[in-house]
Amino acid sequence: MDILKLLSRSSKKPHKSSSAKDEVITKLPSAGSSTNPQLFHDTIPVARGKKRKRAAESLDDRIKEKDEEIDFFAPKSANHKSKNDSTVDIEESKRSASSFDAAKLLDYDDCRQILRSHRLKVTLLPASNVQRKAKKSKKSKADKGAEKKKGTEVYPQPLEAFGDLRTTYGISRRLGENLFQQGYKVPTEVQMGSLPLLLRPKIALGSSMTELDDFNTDNGVNLLAVAPTGSGKTLAFLIPVVDSIVQRRRANDDKRHSLEAVVVAPTKELASQIVNEAKKFCVGTGIKVVGMRKGMSIVPESNSGTTQDSSSEEEESELDDATPKLKSLLPLVRTDILVTTPGLLQSALSSTMPEHPASLPSVRTLILDEADVLLDPLFRDQSLGIWNSCTNTELCVTLWSATMGSNIEELASSTIQSRATRIGLQLSPRIIRLIVGLKDSAIPNITHKLIYAATEPGKLLALRQLLHPTARSTDGTQPLRPPFLVFTQTIPRAIALHSELLYDIPASAGGSSRIAVLHSDLSDPVRNQVMTRFRNGEVWVLITTDILSRGVDFRGINGVVNYDVPNSGAAYIHRVGRTGRAGRDGGMAITFYTKDDIPYIKNVANIITASEKASGMPESEASLQKWLLDALPTPSKKEKKMLKMHGVESRRAGLGKGKDGKVSKGKKSGMQISTKSGYERRLENNRKGAIMGSKRRMQNEMSIEVDRADDDSEWGGIDD
Ligand SMILES: Nc1ncnc2c1ncn2[C@@H]1O[C@H](COP(=O)(O)OP(=O)(O)OP(=O)(O)O)[C@@H](O)[C@H]1O
């Protein structure tokens, strides 16, 4: 059944059976499974010679060939299953050792070709800018070459197929099986580039190691990875962490839980998603993953090794046999992997002595997911506080995001450097930077639209059109199909918009239950409930703030509507990246803008243009015409900063612009909030439906979409 028909006022109530729901969801454009989650398959010009030919072979063929060769993901034999764990572990260790012998590694040219064809750039960054500046005067001019500044490009082994994780990089059989169980077949680009480096840096870097004089990989590497939204970064950071814990537990024959890895994410929603993902990879490994919650505290180090193993993987926190004083204060967490928001962990660390936060000496891996926002002023102190609490000399830090400013890179480098100096490391630790595709573009398989509406009410009307049963998107061809996300600038605006649209979906299609709002003022249980209903396909339109703009993975999302222009280019990339994930096509990103946004919209326009270019779209088909790009004002640095910090002024809570353009204080959210009862609003809504039909016909003739506007026209738009 077509979801638009479900939305039609004349349609019958859909069956609520889960199979019917699944059918609907899988028919949606960006919900189906993508045959290949990779985003880039550039053909690199091939020179003569056998080696290069091999590198230029279709990767798909090679992956297929490799997967056929390898059978280690096959279920264990009955004989194997009956053995006890320690026997299996010993066999595993032997197999791991022999599999290294059998590893077939690519040569330098092959690596380079494959990395390039997948737009992967790997650079070993210089020790840190702080250090560079200090040494500046001593260096000759020749030494100050570009390479010193930008780092050294390296060509590590790419991961061609998941099968190689075991044969070449020796991951545990169980972890390999868990990966296989999840149905992952082809590694995405970020996984191709990062997994070998994180699992076995010496093997991955191979011959390059000799050139990297002061680079030590004995304890692993620090990695900063920038890869498009929805490109599988979570798997890329979880596999190495789970594997390293499995290997260490096996080597020490110690099954007790000791906090070895901390994953920090900016929102509770993302943290809880990571916990769920990690648990899938940990099945049967004995590794415990816990999501940090308010009131939890970390097991004091002295007790971490003495606690009993927890048999229940579901159990998230336990009372330890610590001192009665501590026990009465907070429950204690015993886990191998802790996933947390920065605030929760930082306040747990400083709960007893705020001046001297507790340390986490057993943590060997610190993962900052959405690192740019974690190191942004909003979370910086908390994130750096956690980083500094990880006092283990072998700590490896990995930072992940789809967007990463050079200031964040520098901050990461200098933090690593100063931490090393503080704890007295001999060799200066360095960061490997991995970039997939273009640093500042959205994923290439989304369709972008910019829609101008002269006023706020006009914007609301345009959104209603997208929701309406017979709505067509403004180019008159493609409807915007639910489920979709609608982003607003502030919480009051999200609440107000939700209440405005609550009765727009007819009762026959589920009515107000199909539309929901999610923001940080809601309680945790309500947030969880909304997330679950949206994931299950019960909610079709979710109105939210930037709380859901990063990291959250809803597989079947078909569209993202920026009801309010995002506060920065990065925010646009992350918001629209909720659709078109894992290589799926058909995602649509619609951004409304009004007169108030014109000073800032260039950021978004540039990203759209860059993303379309990156996807190979010819200029003639670009969504934004050149005249528009040229006409849009370029915001100053100051304006950008103000926008990032406060958003568009007229939409801040407490201020709203009326039709007369004057700021009126009575309108809380910058949009009119109705005070009518739901019933009255429903009646009115029915009337509106009829009026909208005729308005729509008029508007279709008005060319409201910017890329269809005539050169000599003013900003075309809905002006009611
Ligand atoms: N190799 C793969 N093959 C197919 N699907 C994959 C693969 N790796 C990850 N995925 C799927 O891709 C989706 C996006 O993954 P993930 O959430 O890790 O993306 P991300 O890069 O972290 O995105 P964001 O930048 O938005 O946080 C998930 O549904 C995940 O299951």
Set down the secondary structure blueprint.
Layout: H1 3-7, H2 18-27, H3 50-56, H4 59-69, H5 78-82, H6 85-102, H7 108-117, E1 120-124, H8 129-135, H9 146-150, E2 152-154, H10 164-167, H11 173-181, H12 189-199, H13 201-205, H14 208-211, E3 222-226, H15 233-252, E4 261-264, H16 268-282, E5 289-291, E6 297-298, H17 301-304, H18 324-329, E7 332-333, E8 337-340, H19 342-349, E9 365-369, H20 371-374, H21 380-389, E10 396-401, H22 406-423, E11 431-436, E12 446-452, H23 456-467, E13 484-487, H24 491-501, E14 515-518, H25 524-535, E15 541-544, E16 559-562, H26 569-576, E17 587-593, H27 601-614, H28 626-631, H29 637-646, E18 656-657, E19 663-664, H30 678-700
Parallel strand pairs: 3-10, 3-11, 4-8, 4-9, 5-8, 6-7, 9-10, 12-17, 13-15, 13-16, 14-15, 16-17
Antiparallel strand pairs: 1-2, 1-11, 18-19
Helix pairs in contact: 3-7, 12-15, 15-16, 19-21
Catalytic activity: ATP + H2O = ADP + phosphate + H(+)
GO molecular function: ATP binding; hydrolase activity; RNA binding; RNA helicase activity
Function: ATP-dependent RNA helicase involved in 40S ribosomal subunit biogenesis. Required for the processing and cleavage of 35S pre-rRNA at sites A0, A1, and A2, leading to mature 18S rRNA.
